[in-house]
Amino acid sequence: MIGAAVFVISFLLFTGVSLAVGFPPGIWVVQEWITEIQETEHASLVGGIINGVIYGVIIWVAFSLTKMAWERKKKKIIKGD
Known about the structure:
- The chain is an all-alpha fold.
- It has one domain (2-79).
- The protein is 78% helix and 0% strand.
- The chain is built from 3 helices and no strands.
- It has helices at 2-20, 26-32, 43-79.
- The two termini are 29 Å apart.
């Protein structure tokens, strides 16, 4: 459940930052692959959402792996191995 909260927070953070400042990979996807919306006002919104999803997933996976490693280490210490 905490992983979902981490994803949502990072998604909102990166989407908001991407709306103010266009940065990769969202801007690249909009410029190269989605040619229909390049010239519209929705291009920054689409780029922001793409960045939010990509960076949200990366942060969520990193958090989940770190949490699993931490719990494994904690169990090992408790067992005394």
